[in-house]
Amino acid sequence: MPTAPRPTAAPTPARPSLTERRKAETQLEIARTAAALFADRGPGVTADEIARASGVALRTFYRYFRTKEDAVAPLLAVGVRQWIGDLAAATAGPGAPSPRVALERAARRALTPADEPAEEALRWTRGLLRAMPGEPALRAVWHRVHHDSEEELRPVLARLTGADPLVVRLAAAAANTALRVAVEEWAAGDQPADGPHGPAELVVRGMRALTAGLPELDGPQDPQGPGNQDSPGGN
């Protein structure tokens, strides 16, 4: 008698070295400073001002970033990395949540501020997005971050769904667009990040709308049931 297939576990990523972790921490600290300055003063901020406010030499700044606008990329990518990391940890197979449910849960967690630093990062992101109409270079960084996240999302969805490449690409584009639009829509208003009109709720609405025509995301079974808040029929 054949045995049932075991759920597919995600590969365990290699832990970054101490040097790599310190570099990432420094880049993120510079990114926070740059975001605060851009949000407060607009595109007139200089790389030298960002470096001085961050407590690093201008030479160090340019070792990490090519332009002053590039400096905000690590901050903008924080939520994206969390989302893809959570999704990559999901398993596939009988008894596992469907890819659709896994996508929604990961996106909701990424855009729900769990502590003050996370809430502050969302506030800075809101300020940056409001500054972007007058600064094309900042908007280019925002779109580049999301383009890169879409590329990273594709192999994760391929593993979870087992779908053909076109479906995987469509699903990645839809999910990534839902995340981007949710943050942009929230940033354009004044709603709190953790309320019913916060980015976490908006991303689920957007994801359900944009992936409704992709039944491959439902998987062989959805143990959540039609009434669960994480399922497409939930609230």
TrEMBL record:
Keyword Transmembrane on entry: no
Bias kind Pro residues: ranges: 1-14
Xref: InterPro entries: DNA-bd_HTH_TetR-type_CS, Homeodomain-like_sf, HTH-type_TetR-like_transc_reg, HTH_TetR
Region Disordered, residue ranges: 1-24, 209-235
UniProt feature, compositional bias: Polar residues: 226-235
SUPFAM superfamilies: Homeodomain-like
Keyword tags: DNA-binding, Transcription, Transcription regulation
Positions of the DNA-binding region: 46-65
Domain HTH tetR-type: 24-83
Organism superkingdom: Bacteria
Name recorded for this polypeptide: TetR/AcrR family transcriptional regulator
Organism, scientific name: Streptomyces yunnanensis
Organism classification: Bacteria, Bacillati, Actinomycetota, Actinomycetes, Kitasatosporales
